[in-house]
Amino acid sequence: MSSLLSSAWAPLAGLGLATPSWALTAVAAAAALALVPAARRRWHLSRAKHRSLAGHSRMAKRVAGWVPGYRLEGPRVYDADGAPPEVAAQRQAALQAQAERWRVRFARTLAATSQARSGLSDLQFTGAYRVPFPFSDALRQHLPVGAFVEHSDGFTVADLDGNTFIDLTGSYGVNVFGQDFYKACIEEATRRARPLGAVLGAYHPCVADVVARLQRISGLEEVSFHMSGTEAVMQAVRLARYHTGRRHLVRFAGAYHGWWEDVQPGPGNPMPPRETYTLAEMSERSLRVLRERSDIACVLVNPLQALHPNKAAPGDSSLVDGSRRAGYDRAAYTRWLQQLREVCTARGIVLIFDEVFLGFRLDPRGAQAYFGVRADLVTYGKTLGGGLPVGVLCGRHALMKRYREDRPADLCFARGTFNAHPYVMCAMQVFLERLESPEICHHYVGLDERFEDRARRLNAALQEAGAPVRARAMSSVWTIEYTQPGRYHWMFQYHLREQGLALSWVGTGRLIFPLTMDERTFDEVVRRFVRAAQTMQAAGWWWHDGQTTHADLRRRVIGEMLTAWWAARRGPRGPAQGAGDGRLSRPGDPALQKTEAARADPAARPEAGAAVPSSTA
Ligand SMILES: Cc1ncc(COP(=O)(O)O)c(C=O)c1O
């Protein structure tokens, strides 16, 4: 605050030469008085940030840039938690045996994946972030994950080798009613759209019906169509800015709203955070900021965060010690949304519910109806397209208007070639029709209780098997916690996969069930989970000396990073090009070529290494 005052005072300082001192004092006092509220607001803003890195985008970005790339090799892959040699040997033997089974069972799928990998950047990206990065190379070498499936049926998917998996990926959340439902939507949509084909610009007649249905569901007056959830969120924020004349948006720590610039500040975004305030969710301090500031256009809420407020979507690549925790309290989250509603109304801030993920999963009328709180703008996507790509924005008339009657050149532009594509619109119409059918409606009856009961059953079975694993549920969206510290919990995803459970690339961080999954299939999920836990246990990955804490394991990781950072600085390429800047080796970098050669020929790999910097491996 003092620096703020002194810098504000500086332009006035020159006046002192010609101004009486009493006048100067009065000016100083006035300036101080004027600045106190601003300084207090700034202070409150800082206090409303969640204390984790997720709440500090700028700092998180800086820290991410410092993390040195390194990989564990040889024995270090197996004893990174301080396990004794016999446990490390047990793990190594188990991994090798699993790798042999893996290669036979997934031969065709793995061959196709390996062929596609170099030309498919998304595949390289997801493959690199399946487990904590120091283990990534070793796991890709032993247990590469096939990326292709060619058949789905009910609740299962089958790979190119004919292996059938119960699908817990939920297709990123799209799959609310089972794959057959979406196949039927797309088939029926194709029949309805075929007479028109891919004519764009003019609307297919189904659009009027779709709009009417969405108005009823959202309780909002207008609808706009987009091609993805990300675009729908972009449009919501843009409209909020246009109508309020304010620039800043508030998002809550950890919440995902797509990959567009302003809603994804921090790591992953090359640009520095700009007009985004990332505040702590479920916090009185954040409400105070909303009450005090007059530069906030909108607040974005992703209700999925109720499962893990203020934390980013859980992925196994961040399972460095097993301290991941989650828990869903519907009543508490409802109170939070009500408070947000009140303060946004009082301050003229646009409240946006981002229901791209959860819309239609909790309630046929979405999260607004489920929590009993109304938003000003609501985004939908994913499942609403009936299996085809879509983003939808619903809002109050005054907020959705993209031009001003009295100033026709002052627009809020938003269009897109493929918006309202006839096939997508027809698939959405079929989806919305079926959403009202008795066969679908009955799946919502007792939904939360059904999935909570299932989570209890799974947890009881895991407890009985002595496995340090528990599921936490927000209705049909689950995440897995680990009940003891460990550095190898991420191995569990490979055991689940081997037992025929398909997980998305975030592994055990998120399991997504179709609402329609029957008890028999769920019982089979439980059996497979328990078998996976038993094989994981038998392989020694859950060895624990009874004393090591999460903090001990984190200290080990920091020690490895420092070693790698130091080794990179002392390496032949020197500090400027080493891993110390946090980047991995660059294409054309001799160090990278060496890594690739080692990958192609495992025999050439250094086996005695500890923490090997990526840039020098
Ligand atoms: C809450 C939320 N908003 C926005 C998006 C972005 O949607 P899309 O991937 O269709 O761009 C997602 C995607 O997962 C999401 O979960």
Can you describe this structure?
There is one protein chain. This protein has four domains: 2-47; 61-69 and 549-613, no CATH class; 78-176 and 446-538, Aspartate Aminotransferase, domain 1 (Alpha-Beta Complex), CATH 3.90.1150.10; 179-307 and 331-404 and 417-443, 3-Layer(aba) Sandwich (Aspartate Aminotransferase, domain 2), CATH 3.40.640. The protein has 617 residues and is α/β, with parallel strands linked by helices. It is built from 22 helices and 16 strands. It is globular and about 80 Å long. The model is unreliable at 1-20 and 574-610 (pLDDT under 50). Helices cover 45% and strands 11% of the residues. Strand 8 (296-301), helix 12 and strand 9 (350-354) form a beta-alpha-beta unit. The strands form four sheets. It has a seven-stranded mixed beta sheet with strand order 5-11-10-9-8-6-7, with helices on both faces. It binds pyridoxal-5'-phosphate. The site of pyridoxal-5'-phosphate has 14 residues, from helix 10.
How is this fold's topology laid out?
Layout: H1 2-13, H2 21-47, H3 57-66, E1 70-72, H4 85-105, H5 107-117, H6 121-128, H7 133-142, E2 149-153, E3 156-159, E4 164-167, H8 179-193, H9 206-218, E5 222-226, H10 229-244, E6 248-252, E7 276-279, H11 284-292, E8 296-301, H12 330-347, E9 350-354, H13 366-371, E10 377-381, E11 391-395, H14 397-400, H15 422-435, H16 438-441, H17 447-464, E12 469-474, E13 477-482, H18 492-498, E14 501-502, E15 511-512, H19 519-538, H20 550-570, H21 574-577, H22 590-600, E16 611-613
Parallel strand pairs: 4-14, 6-7, 6-8, 8-9, 9-10
Antiparallel strand pairs: 1-16, 2-3, 3-4, 5-11, 10-11, 12-13, 13-15
Helix pairs in contact: 1-2, 2-11, 8-15, 9-15, 17-19, 18-19
Bound molecules: pyridoxal-5'-phosphate (PLP).
Pyridoxal-5'-phosphate (PLP) binds at residues 172, 228-230, 233, 256-258, 302, 354, 356-357, 381, 391.
